Amino acid sequence: MKKTTYPYPYDKRTGQIKLPKEVEHEIRQLVQSGQKIEAMKRVLDLTGAGLRYSKDYIDQFEKRKG
Predict the structure, then answer these.
(1) Angle, to 10 degrees, between the axis of helix 36-47 and the axis of helix 21-32?
(2) CB of 39 within 8 A of CB of 46?
(3) Ranges of each domain in the chain
(4) Which of 6, 17, 19, 52 could cross-link with 48 by S-S, CB 3.0 to 4.6 Å?
């Protein structure tokens, strides 16, 4: 089985996701336009983070929106 390589792997030890500003901007736009699931898929594809970590990452954009 071939191991998948992700462009921006998350830190498995801490569960932290760090993406470049331009990618964060893209994710933020998806969330703000109501495409939360699409944003989560994008984070999963870029980082290999699990669903929980991806959702937590997306939720931070919703919290900042207010």
Answers:
(1) 150
(2) no
(3) 21-65
(4) 6
Above 80 in pLDDT, residue 3? Answer: no
Strand partners, 11: 16
Q: Are 58 and 51 in contact (CB under 8 A)?
A: no
DSSP class of 37? H
Name the 3-class secondary structure at 42.
helix
pLDDT for residue 22: 97
What is the chain's length? 66
CA 61 to chain CA centroid, Å, is 10
* Neighbouring residues of 56: CB distance < 8 A, sequence distance ≥ 6: 15
The residue ranking higher by pLDDT, 3 or 13, is 13
